[in-house]
Design brief:
The chain contains 13 helices and 17 strands. It is an alpha/beta fold. Helix 12 packs antiparallel against helix 13. The protein is globular. The structure holds calcium ion.
Length: about 425
């Protein structure tokens, strides 16, 4: 039988913003369950849920503090189970977002790890001695700022490829790997249909911890030693073999790259089923020639067992209707892109709200901004001597709140 996902249309639900079932202003499982008939009518076959595990939400749930618990904001485990059962009753598959690369600094594993150098969980994370009183190397995080934070208590630095509250797990440690496989087993046995693997090409960092080179021309660090490291494909193959040992499970990976030659190494038989195609999805403006070119290149580069993904929006990027806006032609743009997503070769991922033409939110006051990436950009701009207004513009440009506004279920204003 052909894999179900090859003909599926996925729909990404950003947990806090989709549907609030209990009136506290935060989306939850009761709310999502109440909209399953709507989703069925829309014609989608699969739901991708962003993280709903217990989390302090420094990065809106991508900083998990307990992988085995539903965050109380989103409901209870029972609410999750009812949602899953009701989705399956409507022949809708459910894949869940899982963050294998890092945990929240509030996770008890990290609390134990940082408590002393001899704690059994010390090696679950990446700790290094200072070098001449400074960070062990020049790595900067993928959210700006240094990737190392000094921990007073034990006098060492810990590594975080994203925000400092998202500490990287040490995937060279077999105990870490075994525990994260246990996490996946837990949810597979609850009946989920697969995973969306967050920043999956970051799982391994180099063993040498050399300085990253600097690109003088663009004034940016080249991330040579902190992603796509040797051994990463073997780990991904192990994850794929494990997940596919359960029948009909699906894996989509977020490989942080726009380079098709890199992306194609991660998907296909024995690997991830598909990866997010940022070479197409991240296109900054409506350039039909370029879109056509990317689709053609994927067709040539991909072998028979490889399929691209088709999306132009997500919780990490500007909504495409705003991004591609041609004044007065928003409806045409929305229809054009939707037609392309639903007819070109590949697995489409609709981002909630695209079907009703939702546009970017513009934040007019920094106190209303939730996204850590926007807040970091705001503070860096102020430190660089920019005005309040310029810093806010910078935050809106770099922040991700713009595409995370509540689903517009009605025309009511609040
Ligand atoms: Ca709620």
């Amino acid at each position: 039988m052909e894999d179900w996902w090859k003909k599926a249309v996925f729909y990404e639900i950003y947990m806090p913003s989709f549907c609030d079932g209990n009136g506290d202003g935060i989306g939850d499982f009761i709310g999502i369950t109440s909209k399953l008939d709507y989703l069925k009518k829309l014609g989608i076959n699969g739901i991708w849920l962003t993280p709903f595990y217990r989390s302090p939400k420094v990065d809106n749930g991508y900083d998990i503090s307990d992988y085995y618990t539903v965050d109380p904001d989103y409901g209870t485990m029972k609410d999750f189970e009812i949602f899953l059962m009701e989705a399956h009753a409507r022949n809708i598959k459910v894949i869940i977002d899982i963050v294998l690369n890092h945990t929240s600094t509030e996770h008890r594993w990290f609390q134990e790890s940082r408590s002393s150098k001899v704690n059994p969980k010390r090696e679950w994370y990446i700790w290094r001695d200072p070098v001449n009183g400074n960070a062990p190397n020049n790595w900067i995080s993928f959210m700006e700022g240094p990737a190392w934070t000094f921990d007073e208590k034990t006098g060492q630095f810990f590594y975080h490829s994203f925000a400092e509250q998202q500490v990287d797990l040490n995937w060279t440690n077999p105990e870490v790997k075994a525990e994260m496989f246990r996490v996946m087993r837990f949810w597979l046995e609850k009946g989920v249909d697969g995973f969306r693997l967050d920043v999956i090409n970051h799982l391994k960092v180099t063993v040498r911890f050399d300085d990253n080179p600097w690109d003088e021309e663009v004034g940016e660090q080249i991330h040579c030693y902190d992603k796509n490291q040797e051994g990463i494909l073997e780990v991904i193959e192990e994850i794929a073999a494990f997940v596919h040992s359960y029948p009909d499970k699906f894996l989509v990976g977020e490989v942080s790259s726009e380079d098709l030659n890199e992306l194609k190494n991660y998907c296909g038989k024995g690997k991830l089923d598909v990866v997010f195609q940022f070479n197409l999805g991240s296109i900054p403006e409506l350039d039909v020639e370029k879109i056509y070119q990317q689709i053609k290149e994927m067709d040539i580069a991909y072998k028979e067992d490889q399929l691209p993904t088709l999306f132009f929006g997500s919780h990490d990027m500007s909504r495409f209707i705003t991004r591609f806006a041609v004044d007065g032609k928003e409806e045409e743009v929305a229809k054009l892109i939707s037609t392309l997503m639903l007819t070109a070769k590949g697995v489409p991922f609709i981002y909630y709200g695209e079907e009703i033409g939702m546009r970017d939110l513009v934040i007019d006051d920094i106190s209303k901004m939730k996204d850590v990436q926007g807040l970091i950009a705001y503070h860096l701009a102020l430190e660089a001597g920019k005005t309040e207004k310029e810093a806010l513009d910078e935050a809106n440009r770099n922040g991700r709140d713009r595409s995370r506004s509540p689903m517009q279920w009605s025309q009511t204003t609040y």
